Fold Alanine racemase.
Amino acid sequence: MSLTLHVDASRWREHLRRFVDTGRVAVVPVAKGNGYGFGNETLAAEAGALGVETLAVGTYEELARLDDAFAGDLLVLTPWRPWMNARLGDERVIHTVSRPSDLHALVERGGRPRIVLEVLTSMRRHGVDPTQLEAIAEPLAETRFEGFALHLPLAGDHRDEARELAEMAFGAVASSPVRRIWVSHLSRQAASDVASAIDADVRVRVGSDLWLGDRSALSMRATVLDVHSLQRGERYGYRQRPARRAGHIVVVAGGTAHGVALEAPSAVTSIRQRAVSVAKGGLEATGRALSPFRIGGKQRWFAEPPHMQCSMLWLPRDVAPPEPGDEVELDVRFTTTTADRIVWE
Ligand SMILES: *Cc1c(COP(=O)(O)O)cnc(C)c1O
């Protein structure tokens, strides 16, 4: 009796297979965070079944938990810092280095670790400033250099940027024979265009478009745990609000512990969007918030904010309530929602 992710396994795997096999560039699947709703161990096993050479993980902590789940190379996306508990001696691990000082510190520790060097893009998250790449050529030769990393923004076409930064970077370390870049957020077609334009090996690091690229294979559903009929004026919930009308309280699996109703902040740009956002999240103003749960084809209101493991929904009297044991659908962000179980169908 739980929040359940139903996966149409053959459909999902067919999408994964097509994604990895079509096109000319190698795909590096990313397993990080909540494992895009599947869990990182599951993704690591799927990546193994796909036969990819490298799996990318978010952090060194995630790496430590995935050791047995994937047999190939493991790329850590978070740049190495001197205070991190990194397995520098591990042959399978490729470290990301994003500051000249870190490269020097890494070289001082010896052992010739495998590294990719991240170059700062218009994203401006991590990376060595492209004008300062000359400084890294010498220490880079003391590592096993595996290529440059480029983390690109989602918005816009960044083929030209990738091409220019890669050319600059290759030029700065002209003595190295490695012509490989690891890019994020270029489509496979765009990556393949860049690969032919600069005659380089391009690898695309992909999470969302791979694991969540065919949403029709995925459905998140919550078990109905209880249904209570209420008269107008009767009180309910932690807050003991009175029902404004007669209707039903429907208690469903799925609460804050699963990430239900916790949304990553969205980039709200227009005044209208802001108004919509206030209206949707307007618990304070109206005492109500729209839930992600659907009953009778419609998203229903939370009766009150979600609890840890379940949520209380308000259903007007004219809608037939579901029965305990039924399942209802919910629309979730997979990167912030974790199901109790996954059912492979
Ligand atoms: C998370 C991450 C990715 C994968 O992002 P998606 O949008 O899920 O494909 C790629 N590169 C870096 C550096 C990341 O942190």
